[in-house]
Amino acid sequence: MTSPAPRVELTPAAADLLRRLRAAHGPLMFHQSGGCCDGSAPMCYPEGEFRTGDSDILLASLAVEGVDEPVTFWMSKSQHEVWSHTRLIVDVVAGRGSGFSLEAPEGVRFLTRSRLVGT
Predict the structure, then answer these.
(1) Tens-level pLDDT at each residue, the chain (119 residues)
(2) Which of 18, 33, 57, 72 could bond 29 through an S-S bridge, CB–CB 3.0 to 4.6 Å?
(3) Contact 44/21 with Cβ under 8 angstroms?
C-alpha cells in the first residue's frame, strides 16, 4: 500500500531558500495568500507572526532537510474549498513579490504551482 501524495510539497529551490530564511529569521510558517497583496502567493513569515484563527486550516507541516522544526503551511478555509482538488507545489522564481513575505529582499519570490490530485 502506498502512502498518499502530500497536499503541499516543496521544490529543491524552495527548500534551499527556506534553509537560508530559517538561518536568518528562526522558525518559519507559510500562509497561502488569498489574492490581496500578491496574487495567490504563499507568504512566508516567522512562525506565529501571521495570526491564524478559526477561518484557517493547517494543510501541512513541511519537513525541510537542515531545518530543525517543520514549516507550517496554512490556508483560509474558503480558499481551501477552491483548491481542495489540487496538490500545491511551492517553488521560487526570480523577481520581487510582496514586501510582507520574508524572501522579498532576496530578489526572488515564492510561487504556488498546482497539480490535480491523482496526477
Answers:
(1) 445 566 899 999 999 999 999 999 999 999 986 665 555 789 999 999 999 999 999 999 999 999 999 999 999 998 888 888 889 999 999 987 666 899 988 899 999 998 887 65
(2) 72
(3) yes
pTM of the full predicted structure? 0.88
Amino acid at 39: G
Which helix (H) or strand (E) element contains residue 22?
helix 12-25
Cα angle 52, 58, 62; round to 5: 120
C-alpha cell at 51: 495570526
Of 59, 40, 60, the closest CA to residue 113 belongs to: 40
> Which residue, 10, 12, 7, 77, is CA-closest to 44?
10
